[in-house]
Amino acid sequence: MAVRALGDYEFPPRDALGNFKGRQLLYVFWEKHLLFSRPMALALDPALRFSDVLAQHVVPAYRRHPDFPRIDWSQVRWIRSGAPWTPDPDKSLADNGLRHKDLIRMVTPGLDGLDGLGG
Amino acid sequence: MDMKAGKKLGTRERYALMTRDLEWRTTYQPMDKVFPCMSYEGIKIHDWNDWEDPFRLTMDVYWKYQAEKEKKLYAIIDAFNQNNGHLGVTDARYINTLKLFIQSIPPLEQMAARGFTNVSRQMAGGGARIACLLQAVDEIRHFQTQIHSISNYNKYYNGLHGFVGQQSRLWYLSERKSFFDDAITAGPFEFMVAIGFAFEYVLTNLVFVPYVSGAAYNGDMAAMAFGFSAQSDEARHMTLGLECIKFMLEQDPDNVPIVQRWIDKWTWRGARVLGGIGMMMDYMLPKRIMSFKEAWEIYFEENGGALFNDLARYGIRPPKCYAQTVAEKEHISHQAWLGFYQKSQAMSAHAWLPTPEEMDWLSSKYPNTFDKYYRPRFELFREMARSGEPFDNHTLSMNCQVCQATIHYTEPDDPTTLCLRETDHQGEKYHFCSDHCREIFEYEPEKYVQAWIPTHQALQGNCFEPGVDPSAPDFDAKAALFDYWGIRDGRDNGDFEGSEDQRNFSAWRKLATQN
Hints:
heterodimer, A: alpha+beta, Ubiquitin-like (UB roll), globular, B: mainly alpha, Ribonucleotide Reductase, subunit A, two-stranded antiparallel ribbon, 21 helices, 59% helix
């Protein structure tokens, strides 16, 4: 459907890629770890390597969870738009195929939050 | 001179002469040019004479009645203020509910006034016009009396000073703002369903009870008096909203699916706004009235259920979101407060961890969920705070494109999994908190692609005061953002424990009660 309006109703999207001055949005969430109540929103250089996203943003944000030291990083899986997604840590966001406003969900098998209940 | 007094007019005659009798058919211009917004939403009105006036009130009676209420209200506010009533509230944490109130509600009353002024101009029927006009004046009155009843606290406590600008700037206020922005940019009939019906009729008690009873339970006579002074207006607003829905449904069967879609949309948007109210009821009021879950059962499931039964004869079914809101009532207040607590550094109000006694109260009110899911999180936060390094989530939040709530609610059938939805529109990705918000977006994407999402605006560099240069060598992004938000770091924000408000309240109360 389209908006019912008296006149023409076309406006540019307010969060188009071009508005972020060379950066793109990426949202990250650690599945089953709702101690961190919501995903984090990041604006990043598309040339940034994925391993740097982890080191600079993901680790500092999640390090205080009791599950954090128990993460086996070789077992970590990712989900993007409902489907499994495998990043290459040495490649950039762009080369990993991450688009503006992608949301990636980090899954740590066997670690399901406080008491295994998503906390 | 020989004067003969005529017979005094009865209420009904007076009302007819002073309202409905003021209508006329235009002759220089066609009616549809004078009332251009009456048909584009698809609502068909055949005869405005069928409009049943939900109350018969003329402007002169209205002024007289409201003036009497004002006199009483201001006498109470004066007495409360002169007697240092603020020191009699249960504890200074309570004042944070007033901060969230003044930061969002009076500006919304003003938006409601704008909306009803517009609708009172657009409606082609005289009865609807006068009723909407009176409601517009009510809303302005509420805007003023709310500010007057709370402003005295601003002399003593932090975080109340910046509400005029904060409403359109602060990240956690955009959810309520977007509700009204969405409504007043809709057509007049959708506005009436959004505000007149969904907000004023279906959901009003869930706003009114927490704030007004919350004020009464916690010793705040000023805010309580405002609430009672608004109560008779609210009763009028409810009957207007209901009459408008019934009128649309009776005028033409083609109106039914349109009205149903609006009921679905606006009940859901309202339910999302109430997540913040739930948090206040369960966590912020030192003396609680009832749990959010109990309030939802009484005011939404029982009262709302009866209302939707009544509307079934028009072919209206309960809103699509009904089952989801029932599933969520045991979760959303906890999830919202966990989110606020970890982001209190960026709020113009304080947050805190519930005490052990308060957690026991929550366990008793939420036997299925609190101990299992939420107590462990609060206890871990408590441990972190004790260790001297309280948890501060320094990352930026993610918002729903439609309701603009922080995306922090879980799947309706799985409280261990965050509910995340997305869609693509014209090559751009959009994220939502729920199926309902995604559906609202997909129906009118052109409207929601313009949403002013606070996090995105900050990341685009649009959240600095004019003249601030982000490329300057000494640029401090956090300080610049706090300036823009109107938050004085270390005074207005952060944990209530150790705050200036906590210290002052305690010192002043001692002065008032001891030598």
